[in-house]
Design goal:
It is built from 3 helices and 6 strands; from the N terminus they run ααββαββββ. By secondary structure, the protein is α+β, with helices and mostly antiparallel strands. Strands 1-2-4-5-6-3 form a 6-stranded antiparallel β-sheet.
Length: 135
């Protein structure tokens, strides 16, 4: 494992909410970040779809890691927007985030969230966020 992923995993594992919800950091590199969440009943809302809050958490955290890597260190999201495209139904969510533009003081990042059901992979949300270095 390279140093970048080792540092990212250490940060990820120190996040109590990430551990509580059951998320997993799969990929973390200068090309982007990928996080997954195995869907459990407690992630769902009353219609049986994954709750928007769980989808939003995954997108936001993936964006923050992608932005942090682009900025070269610890980072925070200061602005975030998400569009839900379809209900998330399946066994797993995958969030794939990339920094689209990065300077010294901020990174603009985008994320695609997919719902996986067997061999099917459907885009269920698109998100964008602004990430800044943590003080």
């Amino acid at each position: 494992m390279d140093d970048t992923k080792a540092v990212a995993l250490k940060i990820f594992e120190s996040q109590p909410f990430s551990q509580f919800i059951g998320a997993e950091l799969v990929t973390c590199s200068n090309e982007g970040t990928e996080m997954t969440l195995t869907i459990q009943d407690h992630h769902k809302q009353q219609h049986g779809f994954v709750h928007g809050g769980a989808i939003s958490y995954l997108a936001d955290n993936a964006i923050t890691f992608a932005g942090g890597l682009a900025l070269g260190g610890n980072a925070l999201t200061v602005e975030f927007k998400i569009n839900y495209l379809r209900p998330a139904i399946g066994t797993r969510l995958i969030a794939k985030a990339q920094a689209r533009s990065a300077g010294k003081r901020m990174a603009i990042c985008q994320c695609e969230v997919y719902a996986i059901d067997g061999e099917s992979q459907k885009l269920c949300a698109l998100a964008q966020g602004t990430v800044v270095p943590a003080a």
